[in-house]
Amino acid sequence: MKVGQNTNVEMLAAKLQQNATQQAQQSKSGTASEVVQQSRANAAGVPVTVSNSVRSLDQNSKSSSDVDMAKVNAIREAIANGTFKVNASVVADKMLVDAAGLLGASRI
Questions:
Q1: 3-state DSSP call for residue 88?
Q2: Rounded Cα distance, 70 and 62, in Å
Q3: What does the pLDDT profile of the chain (108 residues) look like in tens digits?
Q4: How far apart are CA 23 and CA 16, in angstroms?
Q5: H or E, element range at 20
Q6: What is the pTM of this model?
Q7: DSSP 8-class letter at 67
């Protein structure tokens, strides 16, 4: 090993570059229909068909959301106004239930 050469730093930099490249590729991918269209364009003459069930999944993903944005916005507004209150006993109870589930306990 040469003096002044740090292979750990070089390996870390390479890993960070690889992660950044993967994230950039994932952010470019878009919706399922966009990916299918891109793959059709890149397929060089290979025909690709998408079933109706896949099309319906794509439509469902566009119309439904895993996050209730109305609730998120209401909480943001309450925090900004200083009116958001945390019920500490409810939070503690849920933490105990989660811990019991992780530990495999049948009862708290």
A1: helix
A2: 17
A3: 455 555 666 777 777 787 777 766 666 555 666 666 665 555 567 777 888 887 787 776 766 677 888 999 999 999 999 999 999 999 999 999 999 989 986 555
A4: 11
A5: helix 7-29
A6: 0.33
A7: S
